[in-house]
């Protein structure tokens, strides 16, 4: 017998207050609360089938079968669902990533959120948003936030049961992002490894934790006021502090390429011209602009002097997880 879900869609999110460090690696409990914006431009569609005829779990992304390593995080979620629903069959996961070609963007947030939705649906579990967020978190921390549209906060909590994301604001005001895709081809330090090294070795880690708490309170009040200048300034500082942690680790590492610096300077130039635009960066060389959605077309045009159009993607706030009919 096959228990098959409908297709489930989850969008990616970008953290404005970064998650960078785990308190508990197995349960994925973070050291600090984080806050993100879910975006419309990048998403994953996933369908799960529990099938008694399978002799192992299999994962297809865009029609291509993936290796064991790619399955690791997904199997954590499958196992939790099997346990809760008392299912003993293996599963086939089909995923389609809707990310512009060669974007080089990580899709673990949208991917594992969509999987949490599809796997629980296939198993006949009727999970609340909170339960879905908790399940997605066990695959990848950032996925906990992709259950919700707009701004979401992942509350670090103290245990598996209360480390979940909650919705903060619909972001239905003049805020948007612009991605500058920079692919330098060099091998990354994975997020998991990067944050572990920082927690263990950075002499600045305590400072990160106390300032992340302050930044979080400040950005929540700025979001309430819909103040793009304050939101952008705080987000940019949070990102740069995260990257400073990486430089202060032993051994040090960083995610920047020469083209990242070119993009960062552009943001400064735009600000000097009077635009309210700020940057954020994650565990890779891409630079993401935060600003008024209504000004993103102008900035896009200006960036075409320096970057190819394939490198530029405008994104608006996006919705939470949804079942496709
Ligand atoms: C974030 N990042 O808040 C931070 C900022 C990247 C930089 O969460 O180890 O794939 O699976 O929990 O969620 C990316 O790391 O890490 C991430 P795990 P995840 O978005």
TrEMBL record:
Family annotation (Gene3D superfamilies): 3.30.230.10, GHMP kinase, C-terminal domain
Q: Which domain of life is it from?
A: Bacteria
| UniProt GO molecular function | ATP binding; diphosphomevalonate decarboxylase activity
Instruction: Report the Pfam families cross-referenced here.
Output: MDD_C (PF18376), MVD-like_N (PF22700)
Report any one BP term from Gene Ontology.
isopentenyl diphosphate biosynthetic process, mevalonate pathway
Domain annotation Mvd1 C-terminal: ranges: 178-311
Q: Where is the signal peptide?
A: none
Q: Per the UniProt record, which EC number(s) apply here?
A: 4.1.1.33
Task: Tell me what this protein is called.
Answer: diphosphomevalonate decarboxylase
Query: Which organism is this entry from?
Result: Atopostipes suicloacalis DSM 15692
Phylogenetic lineage: Bacteria, Bacillati, Bacillota, Bacilli, Lactobacillales
């Amino acid at each position: 017998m096959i228990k098959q879900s409908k297709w489930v869609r989850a969008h990616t999110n970008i953290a404005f207050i970064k998650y960078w460090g785990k308190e508990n690696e197995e349960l994925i409990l973070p050291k600090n609360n984080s806050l993100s914006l879910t975006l419309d431009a990048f998403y994953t569609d996933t369908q799960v089938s529990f099938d008694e005829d399978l002799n192992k779990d299999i994962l297809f992304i865009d029609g291509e079968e993936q290796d064991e390593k790619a399955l690791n995080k997904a199997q954590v979620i499958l196992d939790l669902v099997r346990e809760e629903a008392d299912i003993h069959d293996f599963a086939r996961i089909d995923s389609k990533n809707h990310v512009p070609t060669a974007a080089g963007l990580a899709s673990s947030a949208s991917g594992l959120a969509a999987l949490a939705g599809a796997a629980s649906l296939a198993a006949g579990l009727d999970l609340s948003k909170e339960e879905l967020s908790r399940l997605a978190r066990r695959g990848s921390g950032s996925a906990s936030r992709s259950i919700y549209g707009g701004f979401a906060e992942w509350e670090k909590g103290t245990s598996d049961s209360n480390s979940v994301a909650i919705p903060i604001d619909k972001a239905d005001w003049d805020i948007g992002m612009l991605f500058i895709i920079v692919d330098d081809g060099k091998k990354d330090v994975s997020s998991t490894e990067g944050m572990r090294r920082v927690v263990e070795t950075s002499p600045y880690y305590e400072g990160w934790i106390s300032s992340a708490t302050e930044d979080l309170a400040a950005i929540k009040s700025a979001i309430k006021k819909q103040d793009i200048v304050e939101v952008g300034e705080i987000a940019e500082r949070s990102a740069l502090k995260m990257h400073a942690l990486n430089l202060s680790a032993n051994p040090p590492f960083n995610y920047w390429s020469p083209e990242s610096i070119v993009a960062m300077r552009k943001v400064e130039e735009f600000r000097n011209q009077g635009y309210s635009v700020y940057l954020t960066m994650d565990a890779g060389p891409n630079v993401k602009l935060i600003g008024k959605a209504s000004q993103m077309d102008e900035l896009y045009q200006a960036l075409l002097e320096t970057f190819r159009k394939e490198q530029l993607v405008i994104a608006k706030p996006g919705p939470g997880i949804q079942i496709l009919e």
